[in-house]
Structures are given as structure tokens and as C-alpha cells.
Predict the 3D structure of the following.
Amino acid sequence: MSHAPIEPNWPARIAIALVALLALVTAITLAVTIGEMRIPLSTAFQALGNGLFDLGYPVSAIQQGVIFDYRLSRALMAALCGGTLALSGAILQALLRNPLAEPYILGISAGASTGAVAVMILGFGGAVLTISGGAFIGAVVALLVVALLAAGAGGSSDRVILAGVAGSQLFNAATATIVTTLANAEQARGVMFWLLGNFGGVRWPDVWVATPVALICFGVCMLHAKVLDAFAFGADAAASLGVAVTRVKIILFATTAVMTATMVSIVGTVGFVGLVIPHAARFLVGTAHARLLPACLVIGAVFMILADILSRILVPQQILPIGVVTALFGAPAFALILYRARRPT
């Protein structure tokens, strides 16, 4: 008995893509129109037209700068940060087969923060090593430390999580030591605020750095979508299906390190996004990574943009660190995930 091949449901896929695009555009529109300075929606669109296409609308220099140079660049950076962190979480959860895996818990964010702070305060690398380069080295070192700790403890996914928690505390302690002993008062204030996550200093050059990193890393992840499906049954099962397990793990762990290091070097440490968003995406689109990874990218982007809006309006005349806002939503979601993942005794 022959079976006809299952044809992709292209109308449904196109509809989902359009809805995702509409949600992303709506979030960005809200981000450029909401803030302490009230700017009419028509003026905001005129400022965007001037900045993007040089249309010459009569918009004041202050409004043009606020809309295009501050709010739009900030919104796009929030989208890139949220999308890549969610993507990193989905990759780590698939490779480790653990619903609690994400860059923040595994210590990758902490290692990247230590590397970035070392460059900022200690000046490691001089003019050769940038903050992003320091963050990447810190992220790689954190990965190696966690891998060694996990291997020594048995190598299971639960041990990897525990090793990640230990590594995170180690690198957080290193960062705190550098800041408290070697930074002056001004540097300490700036670093501590940056470590909590901050989009306030984001400008267009940061967006131009983050965009190709996000696109290239997303492409690498999508090329391994089928392979990640095989990891659902474990590394041994994936190897029996012809997957080069070691090579794939190296590539994807390095990809998550690059994404995390880039975002941490620009906006600081942001937790819970890589943990919560992949679970929300699985609930909406299922577990097949060909659908899950794009969903994580879009949902993470929209979530981070909305979180950034909240950080600017929750407290009048004050901007909260973005890490505080994501923690307010992420901590209850983390507790829910722990509750659902509990094992019967």
C-alpha cells in the first residue's frame, strides 16, 4: 500500500508568517510611539519616513532624534536581543534534553559579563580586544568550565544544569570582585546598571553589529533543525541516525556562545528570556524545530520589545533595567515550569 507524500500546508504557513510579521511590526510601532515625550502617531511615522527614506517631512530635530535615533534603534536592538536569547534557549534545551537549560542558568551570560567587564575596567587586550570580543571569550571560557564540571560529575543533563549554576556563581563572583576592587565609583555605577540589562545606550552602530550576528546564527540553527529533532531521543539515538553528535554540539554550542556574548556585550545580562520563550513557542507551534526556532525568534523579539516598553513606563520619570522587568515575568514562569516538570515519587 503506497502513501502519497504529505504536501506542506503553504496557506497556513503564509498566514502564520503574516501574523508573526504583524505582531512584530505592531510591537515596534508601540515602542517608537510610547515614552515620556508624547509624540503623535502621524509625527512618528513622518520621522521614520525621514530617517529611512529621507522624505523631508517637517519634523523638529528633537522629535526626529527621539523617534529615529533613540526609540527605533532601541526597539530593533530589543527585538534582536530577545530573539537570539530565546533561540539560544531552544538550542540548549534540545541539546541537553532539559527544560531548564538556557544561557543565563548555564553560566554563559555570567561568563560573557565577566569578559566584557574585564575589558571595560581592566583593559585586557588594549585596543585589540573589544568589549564584544571580551564577552565572547568569557562565554567560551564559561562553557568550558561548565563542561568540565559536568563531565566530572557524570555528564547527565541534570549535572550540566547544576554545573551551570555553579559556574554562574563563580563568574558572577569574579565580576563583582573586579568591580568592587578595581573600578572607581563612576565605573562601578555604570557597570552595575549595565549588568542588569540596559537598552538606554543602544545606538545604530550596535544594531549594525547585532543584526548580522543574529541572522547568521539563525541560519546556522535552521540548517540543524532536523538534527535537533533527532536529539529529542538522546545523543545515542541521534548518532544511530547518522548524526555527527560531537561536531553538531560544538557548532551549536559555539553558535549560542556567539549570540549570547554579542547581546551581553551590548545590553548587559538579561535572564529568563531563553528559558521561558521556548516553552511558550512549543505550546503554540509544537516541538518540530523547523517551526520552533522561527517561533522563538519572533516571540522572543516581541516579548523583549514589550518588556522594554514596560521598563520605560512602569515607574514615572525612571527607566528600570530590562533584566528587572524580564525577571518579574520570568520568575513566576520559571516556577510554573519547575512545577510541571516535577517527577512523580
